[in-house]
Every structure is written in structure tokens, then in C-alpha cells.
Amino acid sequence: MKRELIITPRATIHPNKICLYNSIEWIPAKPKRESISSMFCDMQGYVKNFKDSTRTANGLISPIAKKKIERALDYLLTISKDTQIQHTSNLKRVNFKICFITLTLPSKQIHSDNEIKSTCLNSFLLEIQKYYKVQNYLWRAEKQTNGNIHFHIITDKFIPWSEMRTRWNRITEKLGYVSRYRLELLKWHKEGFKVRKDLLKNWSYKNQIRAYESGKANDYNNPNSTDIHSVRKIGNIKAYISKYVTKNPHGITQLTEEEKEKILVKGRIWSSSQALSNITGSIIDIDSHTQAEIERIVKDSSIYKYEGDYFKVLYISYQDFMKYGAHDLFEYFTGYLYSQFHYSEQTALLN
Known about the structure:
Strand order of the largest sheet: 10-1-2-12-11
CATH topology of the largest domain: Alpha-Beta Plaits
Mean pLDDT: 86
Structural class: alpha+beta
CATH class of the largest domain: Alpha Beta
Largest sheet: 5 strands, antiparallel
Number of strands: 12
Helix content: 25-40%
Low-confidence stretches: 34-56
Shape: elongated
């Protein structure tokens, strides 16, 4: 049977760019052979098994994983609704976009990384979905300088710090981390307040006194094991968060295997909610209408463009499509956001 080569101009739309390329396939296709269009998967950022493809990475974030994380952050920032919350200390209302959390272990880690992720991190993620209606999140695990595993988590819903700390401490106590913390502090301060001189560089005497008094008041049963990073006044939120969740240990290539063993997390080092793990972008066949819209964007010299041998990328926010009369492109992408995340511009404005 005679086979025909079909070349289809296509575009993949993401929140901040459009990728243009040709999809190539033979009709009829050869059995048990991947379509040649798979050659373009890296250009599209199209990865079907997002979560499965990044389970271990040998404890390091690879360049490909970094791109996937940054893409997930792009979508998380796009679909997270702008809301206002009331500040607990001064009762003022402040704008809120996303919640950037760090979770640490209250005492020295004595369980495997995988056991802590399975028992503690997994429980925490399940609870914030149930009690705070978190729908979209991304997490990264790494080691502290003391060897303990800790987690950075970005969520689309606000979680009050005091409630989060209480919840995380209760969860880590399943493995006895709060009890061990309490015993350590009772032993250290058995004769009254005793300063940690080795920590004075980053933890002032005054703050140590304050922590001592706070801990004594609750019998050392509620350690300060959580932190919420303020991102309200940061211009480039994506760059700020990306720095935390995509970095690798400094000088890792110069370390021995034994040294790497101590500072690299075992098992999966990052993942995300299901919707963020299945990102393809809005993939469309380019017709005469969308071609005209794309040409109007291309003509604008202020739009940054990157062109390879087989593709072209236009760096433009989808929210700017309407400035160029690109109604079809806008509709395609907002339709994708709704089908993937149940997000729409109208709903976001109403909420």
C-alpha cells in the first residue's frame, strides 16, 4: 500500500509562549512505530508521563526536570486566583497569590528519606487537599546542612501558618520527631536558658531567648518546624521560587560518592498534583485564521523570538493575545486551561 507523508503546521500554546513547528506523519502509519512528530516533543515540552519521568533523577534536578518544574510553576501561577487574606497580627487585608511553604523535621532524622516522604509528606499533602481545598501543588525535597530532609511546597490556596505548624508537628510525631525534640530541649535547658553559640551567626541571642520562652510555654510540644515565605512584594515570583525548587547542591561534581550519599535525597525528589503532571499546552493545527493572528504577533518587533531549524518560539503572555486581535488563539488556550484545571478568567475575576 502506498504511504503518504503528511506535514501539518501546528502550534503549542503555553501561558508565556507559543511554539510553532510542523508535525510529520505517514498515512497509513507503520505498525508499532512512533510517529515522527515525536521528534518535536522537546520543543513542545510535551511529556505524557510527567510524574513518572522525574521520580528519582539520582538526587539531582536535571536540566530537563528544571524545565518541567518551571513549566509547572508557570501554570500554577496562571491558575492561582488573586485573593485577599487577613493578616493575623495587624488584621490588615493583604493580597495573596500562592503559598510557598518549607517543612522541616523537628529533630535529627533517623528514618529513611522514602519513609519520611511516605509517612509524613504524603499525609500532609492529603490533609491540605481535604481541609484547605488545595487543588494544585508542587513539591521539592532536599537535604539541610544537618543532613535532615526538608520540603518546599507551593500551593494554590492559603494555609494559616499556626495551623500548618500544628498539623505538620502532629504528622511528624507519627515517627516520634516531636517527642525527641522535646527531650533534647529539656536536656539542653535543664538549668535554665542556655545559648546556642554555634548558631549565633544566623540566630541572634534575642531570638533564642524568645524561642526558649515560647517553647517553655508549650512544654516544647510545638516546635517551629514550618515556614511560609512572603512573595507579596517580589516582582518575579517564578524566578524567586524556581531558585529554591530547582537548585542542586553547590560543587556536587567534585564530591565523592560517599559524600554525595550524605547530601542527596533518596528516591523521588519532586512531584506535583495530577493536573500539573499532565501538561501538554494547547496543541492546535494552524489554519488561515490562526496563521493571520500569528503573523500579526510576529510582526511586532518588541516580541522576543527564538528560531531553530525546525521550530520557532514566540515569547508572549496569552493575556496579550487580544492586543493583536488573536481571538482564536486566546479561545484555544483558555479552553485548555478550563479542560485541564477547570479555570476560567471569568470565574477567577468573580472569586
